[in-house]
Predict the 3D structure of the following.
Amino acid sequence: MQNPILTLAETIEQKQPAVLATIVEVKGASPAEVGAQIVLLEDGTTAGTVGGGKLEAAILEDARLALTDGLPRLTHYSLTEEGPEAIGMLCGGEVRIFIQPFLPAPQLIIVGGGHIGRPLKVMGEAAGFNVLVVDVEPGRASVPGLESVHLTADSYIVLITTDHVSDEAALRQIIHSPVRYIGMIGSRHKCEIILGHLHADRISDEALARVYAPIGLALGGPTPEEIAVAILAEVIAVRRGAKIVRVLCAEHV
């Protein structure tokens, strides 16, 4: 059987999500003892054990919830067939578990870099993001650097290239990805044209509505550093679920 702590350490080193469940209290009869641990990985595999059977199944179900919402929890299970928190066992005891998710840092992907990308990278790293800058070749109909980037539901993409062709090319590559945030820099007129092109190619209104364009909160600052602050503030607001009043830049979205 794999050691749960070693498995957890390896998973964290690989920047992959995992959840550690530890039995912290036992009362009465139980198939597991205090200190027993199990690790759940994103692909559903586990390491270690907390007693097997219905108890372990119930713990893993709550661990999967922690893997999704990223929140630690202290859970209680009654090893009985009936009653509050019962899980259908005959042991008659009680078990309390601490479930701790370990999630990699959120990913901030800056497509284009440049005079805004440089301060945004520094600020993003200071805010706890794993920042990746993807360079582009102006005028190309694709952004090859994006093809090797693993995009997840905890990825946030900022399109700030130097020309509209590259912005549109990058947007086409990521519009159907699972990323949490897509922001595109530019004037309202430019954004309307690019979103109009995608709409004409039958990209759904639902997909286009995910795009924050023009990018950033309306803080009013004109310098690259102030624009970077406005962009990062919007990214953080989306990540934390803050309410943002959006004025969509095209009628069809």
Notes: Helices lie at 4-13, 53-69, 114-126, 144-147, 164-174, 188-200, 205-208, 224-239. The beta strands are 18-27, 37-41, 46-48, 73-78, 94-102, 107-111, 130-134, 155-159, 181-184, 211-212. The radius of gyration is 23 Å. The CA atoms of residues 62 and 108 lie 29 Å apart.
